[in-house]
Specification:
rod-shaped
């Protein structure tokens, strides 16, 4: 097989792999958004728990 033909096949395979990786990354994006939302919710809950509550004023 000619060198140029092999090089063209290699480049096509590389582009196909990149496209597949892009499709997989794009499909995994909603999971990342959910993970981020849950993470920030946990941070908010932690801050609420760590914030001291004001003591009630004596009557």
């Amino acid at each position: 097989m000619h060198f140029q033909t092999q090089l063209a096949q290699y480049r096509m395979a590389e582009r196909h792999a990149q496209a597949q990786a892009y499709r997989l990354a794009k499909a995994a994006k909603p999971e990342r958004e959910l993970r981020t939302r849950i993470g920030w919710t946990l941070v908010e809950v932690g801050l609420r728990l760590a914030t001291p509550t004001p003591a009630s004023a004596p009557l």
